[in-house]
Amino acid sequence: MTTKTVDVLLVGAGAMSTTLGMLLKQLDPALKITLVERLDHVAHESTDGWNNAGTGHAAYCELNYTPQKADGSIDTAKAFAINSAFEVSLQFWSYLVEQQVLPAPQNFINPTPHQSFVWGDDNVAFLRKRFEALSAHPAFADMEYSEDPEILRDWMPLVMQNRKAGEAVAGTRVRYGSDVDFGSLARYMASHLEQQPEFEMLLSRTVRDLKRKADGRWRVKLKNSQTGEREKIYARFVFLGAGGGALPLLQMSGIPEGDGYGGFPVSGQWLVCRKPEIVEQHLAKVYGKAPIGAPPMSVPHLDTRIINGEKALLFGPFAGFTTKFLKQGSKLDLPKSIKANNLKSMMSVGLNNMDLTRYLISEVMQSHDARIEALRKFFPEARSEDWSLSYAGQRVQIIKKDRANGGGKLEFGTEVITARDGSLAALLGASPGASTAVNTMIGILERCFPEQMASVDWQSRMKAMVPSYGQSLVEDPVLLQQVRERTLSVLQLDSAPAPAPKLSAAAEPAEVRQSLAS
């Protein structure tokens, strides 16, 4: 058995771990870092381009980020938080392009307008309110709104083909939305990291044991699935960024902060069209409203995708259920994750989410024709023979204790769990996921490397990578304009000039501040 000692051990070679590794190496090139991955390739689970929507989530088009309150007003807090977090990712990626760490932007990110589309009087009224609430703030000042079928036909030709005359429709558009090939992005970062001193990539490694020793270090036992060789690594800091596989590893660690967490796996499927004569008619990500009872990850959308240079259209996702936590996982993943400390929470969630269960069963039972009918609500002229079914990656939604009610609650966001001493961090959950990876990983650095992050050296390096670091883009419209002009230019996402931002009282700054603080 080989044994080695490192400063940082990253588990899982996806968008999260490669982002954290890149940040750490930029902040301190002398750090000794090892990244281990269960598969024999980098970023081939949830991060892979075909396993996710590839939307650069900025809350421009995702209607589930702006729910309607009981009084009819629009809750914009999550939209502002996600928009601000995505701007952090754009700044970091721009820095890496400028430093020639990443290749030309079109290799991993492409301009793709972000649009919302609804039909029916009630939905049109909702979208109009949403537009009014968001566009009053500089972050969304470039958002356009229309109920004119001719304008909408120009924005989204396939969606507007042969619509019923007189049907109430509405749409919004932000021209500089993006399609991100997160798989390629992660692989570019991993490739750069492998060329750095004091960095090692270990593929085909499965974590078999994870234990904290008396000296504060973590002892991690690995098995090489190709050779059967056993390895042992001692690390001062461990990050569990293994997607759906992070929950079992968190449970293995035994840290009290992970007590009571469980997972609810949701699978996904896409309809894919690769016919050039259809694909070339659509350049947008068009999001609609989720069906009643559907999880947020099942918001329907018709997407332009550019993956490994190949252009295609995706529609979905269609949700499903499996007991696997990973696409290439085991059917025993869910049963094995049930422990004494999360059994009550998981049973409570199961009993209180029967509508979701019935919805997932109905999705699994759908025929190809039924999925095509769902597509035709977005693309009326869709033909069954032009579309094939593709299986997306697994998403494990968070189940945690509901201390107020004594049961459990199901959450559809992401959550970072860290050990009290900052020696271990784990990322659970799904959306908005990789889009906000940079902001999320900076948060981990602040919690787990507080002394270094407070140093003059790390502060100056952070500001070089993310110029807005330590400041609020929501509350500083001038800084927002400066940052956005740079990132849109460097990443080649927009050729049109943006109007000068104007801060409005309608921007709900107190609500935004509360969201960002949380």
UniProtKB/TrEMBL annotation:
EC number: 1.1.5.4
Reactions this protein catalyses: (S)-malate + a quinone = a quinol + oxaloacetate
Family: Belongs to the MQO family.
Record's protein name: Probable malate:quinone oxidoreductase
One Gene Ontology molecular-function label: L-malate dehydrogenase (quinone) activity
Keywords assigned by UniProt, alphabetized: FAD, Flavoprotein, Oxidoreductase, Tricarboxylic acid cycle
NCBIfam families reported in the protein's UniProt record: mal_quin_oxido, PRK05257.1-1, PRK05257.1-4, PRK05257.2-1, PRK05257.2-4, PRK05257.3-2, PRK05257.3-4, PRK13339.1
